[in-house]
Write a structure and sequence with these properties.
DNA-binding, homodimer, two-stranded antiparallel ribbon, Arc Repressor Mutant, subunit A, mainly alpha, 2 strands, 7 helices
Chain lengths: 177, 177
DNA sequence: CCAAACTCTATCAACTTGGTAGGGATTATC
DNA sequence: GATAATCCCTACCAAGTTGATAGAGTTTGG
């Protein structure tokens, strides 16, 4: 290995790294991970329905939760197709939860709207697929680490229901970077 | 609320939901979440460097880990800019870890390559941003739940180093959906 | 000076995301 | 049975991201 202690080198590296980090953070605009805008809308709509305890029209939900109306139509339709909500057509129609809010988990909604929760295809139970560039799955170091991430995420998402979200006002300690 | 127990309705809903689910799972092709292909390459390259314990040329790493060579160039450059690796140019040049493998965490690498780990901008410490459509952050149910997801993910990623990945062959129980 | 290696910037195709648009089907009411 | 309100469905689109590829520039050892 060539020398790590180039005179001044480490300090210079540190300064450069800091600058690059600042640039990156300053322009970090997108958070496309784990949960999409669409899933966020879906969860908010379900929370609204749970809180109302009654059926609501698309327009009502859209207005209350500030969700683009036509986009919400698609979302609710999808939730209906997957048996989360039911609908009634025609005048005075609307949407209502098909199951008690306590039985609708965040995980279920996320899987419907955003697809599998697992960070890698080789870690999904419901949509397992071997990674294209994987040689020996059992020896994959990356897989081993992300298996733990996936498990802990699933622990939270599959144990938390819409009812929990409506009820519990426990404080948030602003967390991960 | 209109009647939930339409005769036959629930069963039909169940069947439809099952069909929609099967379609969705069968065609689930992409796992763009938590970790990108690029970050996977970055981690694999670092693992290769750690295992070698010596400097390696881009070509060597690319071949050993089956990473597109020119793509790997960009990745290593980025890691260098952020102070993870150092490089030497010219004939017999190459890359080497700048810090011991035990000090390079998965979290650090992911933040460099993929950006903030937090699932929502309002949960990031390093790149906090208020959600565009958020009314009262403290009352946001979604935020509350995903704060827990983010914390647990960070717990794993910031405590696991490249050295851990190289060393520990603990078994994986195929986990989250 | 040359060849081998890293450095940097530009470009690109394919895909995803977040919506918009519009017509069709169903229902309550008059 | 007309009408208006509502859900149902499909098609389409702009902007952005991802996963590369290309190529010219710079440094180093011999």
């Amino acid at each position: 290995m060539f020398c790590l202690n180039v005179r001044g080198g480490t300090l210079l590296q540190g300064a450069k790294a800091a600058i690059y980090s600042i640039i990156q953070i300053e322009f970090a605009e997108r958070f496309p991970k784990v949960i999409s805008q669409k899933a966020k809308y879906a969860l908010r709509a379900l929370v609204a329905l749970a809180r109302a305890g009654d059926s609501m029209m698309i327009g009502e939900i859209a207005e209350a939760e500030r969700i683009p109306r036509k986009f919400l139509e698609q979302i609710l339709l999808e939730l209906k197709h997957h048996g989360i909500v039911m609908s009634k057509r025609g005048k005075f129609g609307g949407y209502a939860l098909l199951a008690p809010a306590a039985q609708i988990t965040f995980g279920a909604v996320l899987r419907i709207i955003d697809g599998p929760i697992a960070p890698l295809p080789c870690l999904s139970r419901i949509a397992y697929r071997r990674c294209a560039d994987c040689r020996a799955e059992e020896e994959c170091e990356i897989r081993r680490v992300f298996a733990r991430v996936a498990t802990s995420a699933r622990d939270v998402l599959d144990r938390t229901s819409i009812a929990d979200a409506v009820a519990a006002p426990e404080p948030v300690e602003a967390g991960a970077a």
